[in-house]
């Protein structure tokens, strides 16, 4: 009954619906209203992306012709892959894509190893200054990357670079400059730290009695138990690495190392072909969307867990 | 051994996080250039004097603050609305959550390119408006609407992210509290004010701080869609810092802008921390 009452109370459409039957009807009406609202919002969030994908198969003239109506969101008319072949003709797209994948994967893998090791030391061992170290790491979280981007640009331009054979000055226009600065991540360390902290310390002691060293415990005891934390950190590292724009815009000049996000800029210049632009955008977006839908639960849990800090 | 495991992260954090933060403070008082045969020299507060007499800097500071002040309540409020809307066991919840979240996994670069087309004078949005007999403006070409257009698009992109965080906050609130409130005859709105809102205090702080800091960093959208124009109506602090530090290679001047940006972020974090701490004390 109280459930029914609350529905009546906040349904302005039926302020006097006191009979049970009336309340039921207003409750159902409200449910319909909520569903309509949710669906309208789904259109707001979904349609622009649908438009992007659909338009990538249409020539520019048809994109504009279809704009006024529902056809803008339907793959109808002169549908083809011309925009896609056009993209590959116009820019070294395969190279851009490879660069993006390579940079993102390297950042994720490097980040998983480096940050989990650091978090392991902070969470499982006891030494002086441990708390201070953790506090310093956490304090850096409020500094946005954009604050130090320009000084960092100046710094990496002076850092010695080792190409495997000899040292030279400056990291600009390399893969390394797009990967190495983003491997260690205070937030990843924090996420691992939080997770490691929940694993019983008795496991360490048992492993030590069996003669395992710290590294062995890290590798064979703790990491195998940390699947969810690894997934979270991997996702939260991958997305920004794949989406990086400001930094590669400044540090890359040659197409050999440019990632796809910066490559898209080519389409802003002379003679915009909107269809090709949509094709380019679709290729770099759809795989991530598919990954997201496939691993939805992990994605959402990662984001949610990023909110429960403090 | 322990130190060896801590070493890679320490070296990287010092080199690529602490040193650049420190450099911001040092370089801001020099005439350092990105590529220069001559070593940088200390020039005192000259960069700041120049900065404060530069109209473009004031425009970028103003736009950055307007963007932040508008987007923080709009985006967090709407995201909370979404979260409350789908925080039920009704069928289809998962579907709606997924759809609302799609723009979040789409990069800001792609979103900006896509909306650059939607916002064209003859683009999708104006075509849809025309169906209702409304003549839409030249969204990005008009100094009056350009920043609003960027705000709307940015909120659209990131809202799903904060919806998920609000949702996880909502789910920590015990169901019994709602049942008890309902028994006492509290309306849905009263339940929201007396149960939901207080229960979200921690989530709220987190969301406000993250949106604020992210908003201060506005860059990609501007660089792709407007290049700061028209008439500096969308230029931002980071956009100006990149323009001077990268395109014009004036690292010292760019560092001065970054330092202003840093002070802004620090001030907001401290104020927000102070406000939440006060509340804890009175409770």
User: CATH superfamily of the domain at 63-106 and 144-282 in chain B, called what?
Assistant: MetI-like
Kindly report the oligomeric state of this protein.
heterodimer
Largest interface (CB within 8 Å) is between:
A-B, 97 and 103 residues
Strands in their spatial order, largest beta sheet of chain A: 1-2
Number of E strands of chain A: 2
**Alpha-carbon distance between the two ends of chain B:** 46 Å
The profile of the biggest β sheet of chain A is: 2 strands, antiparallel
The CATH level-2 architecture of the largest domain in chain A is identified as Orthogonal Bundle
Mean pLDDT of chain A: 85
Radius of gyration of chain A: 26 Å
CATH class bucket of the domain at 63-106 and 144-282 in chain B: Mainly Alpha
Residue share in helix of chain A: 55-70%
Strand portion of chain A, in percent? under 5%
């Amino acid at each position: 009954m109280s459930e029914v009452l609350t529905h009546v109370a906040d349904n302005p459409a039926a302020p006097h619906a006191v009979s049970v039957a009336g309340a039921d009807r207003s409750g159902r009406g409200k449910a319909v209203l909520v569903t309509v609202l949710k669906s309208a919002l789904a259109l707001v969030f979904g349609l622009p992306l649908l438009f992007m994908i659909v338009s990538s198969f249409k020539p520019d003239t048809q994109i504009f012709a279809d704009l006024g109506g529902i056809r803008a969101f339907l793959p109808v008319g002169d549908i083809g892959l011309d925009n896609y072949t056009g993209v590959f003709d116009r820019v070294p797209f395969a190279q851009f894509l490879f660069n993006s994948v390579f940079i993102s994967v390297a950042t994720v893998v490097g980040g998983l190893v480096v940050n989990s090791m650091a978090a392991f030391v902070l969470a499982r061992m006891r030494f002086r200054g441990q708390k201070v170290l953790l506090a310093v790491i956490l304090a850096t979280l409020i500094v946005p990357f954009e604050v130090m981007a320009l000084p960092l640009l100046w710094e990496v331009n002076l850092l010695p670079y080792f190409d495997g054979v000899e040292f030279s000055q400056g990291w600009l226009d390399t893969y390394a400059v797009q990967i190495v600065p983003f491997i260690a991540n205070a937030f990843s360390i924090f996420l691992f730290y939080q997770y490691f902290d929940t694993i019983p310390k008795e496991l360490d002691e048992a492993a030590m009695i069996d003669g395992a060293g710290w590294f062995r415990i890290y590798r064979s005891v703790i990491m195998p138990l940390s699947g969810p934390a690894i997934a979270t950190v991997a996702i939260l590292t991958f997305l920004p690495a794949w989406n990086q724009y400001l930094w590669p815009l400044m540090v890359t000049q040659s197409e050999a190392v440019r990632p796809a996000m910066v490559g898209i800029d080519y389409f802003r210049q002379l003679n915009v072909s909107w269809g090709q632009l949509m094709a380019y955008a679709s290729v770099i977006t759809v795989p991530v969307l598919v990954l997201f839908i496939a691993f939805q639960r992990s994605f959402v849990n990662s984001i949610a867990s990023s909110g429960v800090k403090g | 051994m322990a130190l060896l495991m801590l070493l890679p992260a320490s070296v990287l954090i010092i080199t690529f996080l602490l040193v650049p933060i420190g450099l911001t403070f040092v370089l801001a008082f020099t005439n350092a250039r990105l590529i220069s045969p001559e070593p940088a020299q200390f020039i005192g507060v000259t960069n700041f004097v120049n900065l404060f007499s530069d109209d473009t800097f004031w425009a970028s500071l103003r736009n950055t603050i307007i963007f932040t002040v508008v987007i923080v309540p709009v985006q967090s409020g709407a995201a909370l609305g979404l979260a409350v809307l789908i925080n039920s066991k009704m069928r289809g919840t998962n579907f709606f959550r997924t759809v609302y979240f799609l723009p979040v996994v789409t990069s800001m670069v792609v979103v900006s390119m896509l909306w650059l087309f939607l916002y064209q004078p003859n683009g999708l949005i104006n075509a849809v408006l025309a169906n209702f007999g409304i003549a839409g403006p030249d969204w990005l070409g008009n100094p009056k609407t350009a920043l609003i257009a960027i705000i709307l698009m940015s909120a659209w992109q990131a809202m799903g992210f904060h919806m998920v965080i609000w949702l996880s906050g909502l789910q920590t609130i015990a169901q019994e509290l709602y049942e008890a409130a309902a028994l006492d005859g509290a309306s849905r709105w009263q339940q929201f004010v007396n149960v939901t809102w207080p229960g979200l205090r921690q989530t709220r702080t987190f969301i406000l701080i993250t949106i604020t800091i992210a908003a201060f960093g506005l860059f990609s959208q501007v660089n792709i869609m407007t290049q700061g124009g028209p008439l500096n109506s969308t230029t931002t602090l980071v956009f100006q810092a990149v323009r001077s530090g990268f395109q014009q290679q004036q690292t010292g001047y760019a560092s001065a802008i970054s330092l202003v940006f840093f002070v802004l972020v620090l001030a907001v974090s401290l104020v927000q921390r102070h406000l939440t701490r006060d509340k804890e004390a009175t409770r």
